[in-house]
Every structure is written in C-alpha cells, then in structure tokens.
Design goal:
disordered N terminus
Length: about 210
C-alpha cells in the first residue's frame, strides 16, 4: 500500500467520523397545527410538536411564540374584558413507563399545564408566548425522549395562515438545551373580535380546504 493510499484512507475515515459525531448528538423537532371553530367567535388551535432527543434528554416545557400579538391593540391581557382573547389549555403526550401521578394513580399520558407568559429566562424568547409545563398532576412522571405532544389553546383571534413560522416553537430540555423548531399552521390574528361576522370565517375556511 502506497503512502498516498494510506493518506486517502485515513482522510476518508476521519471525514466519516466527523460526519457521524454530530449525528449522534443531534436533536430534532418539528411542529404543525390546525384550527377548528368552537363558537360564534372562538377558535380552538391544535399544535402537534414532535421531538427526537435520542437518550440525551427529555422535554421540560414547550413555548409557542405569540410575538405578533405583542403590539395588538385589541389584546391587552390585563384588561378584564379581554382575558379570553387567548385562553391556555392543557396539552398531552405519552408518558414513560411507570408513570404514577401525584394522587398515586397510574397514567399513560403527561398533562402539560399551560399559561400565557412574557419571558423565558432560560432561553431566548423575550416576548409574549404560551408555555406548557409538566408541573401539575403528572409532575412525578417523565415524558419520552422521542415523542409527540398535542398542545391546545383557545382564542377569539381569527385564524391567519396556515403558514410557516420560523423559530416559533421552543423546547426546553432537561439537560438545559433550548431546541428551536419551525411551525407550520395557523395562529390567531390581531382582530377586533366582537363579534366576527360569519362571512369572515367563510373566507378563512377556504385556506384549509
């Protein structure tokens, strides 16, 4: 074997190793969504987040950016008559084996409790967002390192989209990692929502056919 052959073989091996190492440590996530009308001027938004952390970590919380509503004239969460513009709802994902809730009841699902917040001190989401945490009934349980969560919220904001919203989802992992995901789906618009005419929703529904 010539020196050139040995060099080429060594370079190929090093290149292969370099390509494998990031793959072993890589994490992945994606998110899609859909919306359904749940009242004359209310919509329920469903967000499905999938993740693959291998065996490195598990999700601790999910954030969904509502940055586009920060300057919304019609949405002031401190105003009593606008408290239901965005209403957080519980999310769900499959629990790891052996899950027993705070009441001592075996569970198959993680219950992700949610709220609207304005800052995430651990990661880079310094604006209004929805967050889902496992800090309620199933707090003693672990989610899966590879799985899917069904997250929900209700809004009086007429749906816009579906569209691609880059970096709209943030997953905070148990190892301190902040994983950013793109989201394809609808989000509530900033609209004067009292009440929405049916013709407006008929126009929006065309987008989902």
């Amino acid at each position: 074997m010539t020196r050139r052959t040995v060099f080429v073989a060594l370079a190929t091996a090093l290149l292969s190793a370099a390509l494998v190492v990031p793959a072993l440590g890589a994490v992945a996530c994606s998110a899609t969504g859909e919306v359904e009308q749940s009242g004359s001027d209310t919509w329920t938004y469903h967000v499905y987040v999938t993740w693959d952390f291998g065996e490195a970590a598990i999700p601790e919380r999910f954030n969904l950016s509502l940055e586009h509503l920060d300057d919304c004239f019609h949405y002031n969460s401190d105003s009593p008559n606008q408290q239901d513009y965005i209403v957080a709802q519980r999310g769900f994902s499959e629990a790891d084996s052996g899950c027993v809730d705070t009441d001592g009841t075996p569970r198959d699902s993680i219950y992700w409790e949610s709220e609207v917040v304005f800052d995430d001190p651990d990661c880079w989401m310094p604006w209004r967002h929805l967050t889902w945490r496992n800090d309620g009934l199933t707090e003693p349980c672990d989610p899966l390192p590879v799985g899917e969560a069904h997250l929900q919220f209700v809004s009086r904001g007429v749906p816009i989209g579906p569209a691609m919203y880059y970096d709209a989802i943030l997953i905070v992992a148990s190892d301190g990692t902040c994983v950013v995901c793109d989201y394809f789906g609808p989000l509530p618009d900033c609209n004067e929502w009292a009440p929405v005419e049916s013709s407006t929703w008929s126009t929006v529904k065309v987008l989902y056919r």
